[in-house]
């Protein structure tokens, strides 16, 4: 029973699918018929368009042939068509002539512009020449030059006003600077008076702050210089002390003084050691070589000490030179301000 039911259901499904396919086939047939009809219509329209295109082509060829005959001027043509040919030729010639005239007009416009520029330049030259004459009046200036002169005059007036304002501003700044200078000078005088009172100075001779600062700076540099010299002297004293102890030790041990070369030598000792006779008599022994090395070391140390002394002396001279220059500037300032002047030489009494 189940197998029979299944076969019937399958058969019904197949029948329904067959009906669906048949309907689709019918619809396809109808669509194919419609497409075939449209194809026939399109073919007919194509044939019509081809026919129309051939007719238009033939008409165009005929018109083209007639136009060529008109242009070529066939003598076999009647007089009316010859007149048409002449008119076409005249039209073409007129167009070419029009182009030439346009170019000539452009060239003439350019020449006109150049002539106007030359005329303007000539007018300006004549005006400049007339300006040098004595009989110069308003009639010698053209209208455009008058306008330019008026504009220049207005600009010059504006510039003059700006310069006047700048001068006024600078004058005000100068007055302010002068006022500040007076205030600072009064303040410096008050400070000098207070400093003189604090230091207990004389009332008629007021101590100057600048002079004190300059003196302090000079003393500070001089103090540093003295400290360097003291250090150099200490090193020399230690060297002499060491040399003296070595000499004492050599004397106690009974050795010769020739081998007791120290780091401190006088000029006489160096001259004796470097004399020709004594130098030639030195034997080439390790002791003499060590003595010569000690001598060279002592000479180098002496040269180094002399160089240090020279450097200190130069530094001292530089400090003194700066001191003298500062004093000269101070005296010149006092002389200019009227606070000090050189004493006049009194005439000798007879």
TrEMBL record:
Coiled coil ranges: 25-59, 91-194
Highest taxon, organism lineage: Eukaryota
Keyword Coiled coil on entry: yes
InterPro entries cross-referenced by the UniProt entry: CC149
Keyword entries, A-Z: Coiled coil
Pfam families hit by this protein: CC149 (PF09789)
Keyword presence, Coiled coil: yes
Signal peptide as annotated in the record: none
PANTHER family: COILED-COIL DOMAIN-CONTAINING PROTEIN 149 (PTHR21682:SF2)
Annotated family: Belongs to the CCDC149 family.
Protein name: Coiled-coil domain containing 149a
Origin species: Oncorhynchus kisutch (Coho salmon)
């Amino acid at each position: 029973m189940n197998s029979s039911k299944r076969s019937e259901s399958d058969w019904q499904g197949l029948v329904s699918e067959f009906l669906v396919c048949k309907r689709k086939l019918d619809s396809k047939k109808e669509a194919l018929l419609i497409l075939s009809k449209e194809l026939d219509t399109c073919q007919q329209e194509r044939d019509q368009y081809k026919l129309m295109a051939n007719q238009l082509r033939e008409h165009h060829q005929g018109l083209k042939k007639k136009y060529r005959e008109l242009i070529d001027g066939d003598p076999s043509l009647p007089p009316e068509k010859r007149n048409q040919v002449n008119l076409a030729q005249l039209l073409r010639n007129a167009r070419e002539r029009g182009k030439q005239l346009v170019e000539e007009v452009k060239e003439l416009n350019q020449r006109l512009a150049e002539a106007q520029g030359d005329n303007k330049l000539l007018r300006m030259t004549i005006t400049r020449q007339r300006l040098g004459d004595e009989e110069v009046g308003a009639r010698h200036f053209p209208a455009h030059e008058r306008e330019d002169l008026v504009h220049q005059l207005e600009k010059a007036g504006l510039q003059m006003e700006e310069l006047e304002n700048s001068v006024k501003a600078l004058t005000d700044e100068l007055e302010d600077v002068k006022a500040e200078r007076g205030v600072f000078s009064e303040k410096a005088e008050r400070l000098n008076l207070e400093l003189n009172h604090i230091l207990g100075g004389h009332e008629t001779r007021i101590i100057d702050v600048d002079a004190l600062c300059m003196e302090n700076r000079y003393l500070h540099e001089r103090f540093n210089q003295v400290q360097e010299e003291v250090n150099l002297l200490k090193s020399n004293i230690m060297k002499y002390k060491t040399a003296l102890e070595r000499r004492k030790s050599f004397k106690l041990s009974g050795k010769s003084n020739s081998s007791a070369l120290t780091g401190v030598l006088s000029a006489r000792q160096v001259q004796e050691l470097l004399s020709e006779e004594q130098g030639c008599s030195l034997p080439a022994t390790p002791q003499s070589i060590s003595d010569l090395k000690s001598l060279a070391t002592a000479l180098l140390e002496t040269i180094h000490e002399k160089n240090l002394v020279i450097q200190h002396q130069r530094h001292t001279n530089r400090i003194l030179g700066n001191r003298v220059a500062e004093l000269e500037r101070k005296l010149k300032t006092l002389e200019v301000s009227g606070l000090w002047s050189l004493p006049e030489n009194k005439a000798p009494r007879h």
